[in-house]
Amino acid sequence: MCCRFAYYSRIIEDIEGVADWIEPGVKTFCAGDIHPSEPAVVIKADPGKTQIRAGVMPWGFLSYDKKLLINARAESVQEKKTFADSMAYRRCVIPAGHFYEWDRNKIRNTFFLPGYRTFYMAGLYNIFDQTDRFTVLTTGANESMSPVHDRMPLIIPEERIRDWILEYASAQEILKEIPPAFLREAEYEQLSLF
User: Fold this and answer.
1) How many CA atoms lie within 13 A of 79 on its CB side?
2) Is the pLDDT of residue 194 over 90?
3) Mean pLDDT of 95-122
4) Pairing mode, if any, of strands 52-58 and 21-22?
């Protein structure tokens, strides 16, 4: 699961190495924690589907009853009516510096990808009320995540971003990949004396 992540101002340098074109709002986007419904930087295909561009859009698909759908399960995204069309035609990635997850004891854990200041979460976008909105794809937790939660974001390696966004056959393969191991820092950890 992914319900909050962080965006750093230095991420723009990594985005410049990935995207063919950057919309003006990206360079002035404020760094900080991104919560559901808030805008975030997203990389998607340009209208011609030949290049990729970075822009800003709000987080969360709107359901028929106007609830936010912030995550979609990678295992079923192609079958779910809400997400299938976006999976086929509107894939994106969301750059982040780290993400958060709360464990069963309500302790916040922060997850970083070792060796990288930016990682890219798989996403989909769609148009709601004339506004593009995105959702984050999740997959089963790997060993680094499973002590905290049974779901985690699907991570797209930088070298596969174009495959994910522009090539449907490649994107179908990427859906099945296991994310890399993350480092975890807990906000508070109880130490045992026994």
Assistant:
1) 4
2) no
3) 95
4) parallel
Say if residues 122 and 137 touch (Cβ distance below 8 Å). yes
Sequence-separated (6 or more) residues with CB below 8 Å from residue 29? 7, 12, 39, 41, 56
pTM: 0.93
* Domain chopping of the chain, boundaries: 5-186
Structure tokens at 92: 């994106």
Q: Are 15 and 26 in contact (CB under 8 A)?
A: yes
What Cα–Cα distance (Å) separates residue 39 from each residue in 6, 26, 31, 43, 60?
A: 12, 11, 11, 13, 9
CA angle 79, 81, 85 (to 5 degrees): 85
Looking at domain 5-186, its CATH superfamily turns out to be: SOS response associated peptidase-like (3.90.1680.10)
Residues in the chain: 194
DSSP-derived letter for residue 160 is G
pLDDT-derived band of residue 94, with 50, 70 and 90 as boundaries? very high
184, 100 Cβ separation under 8 angstroms: no
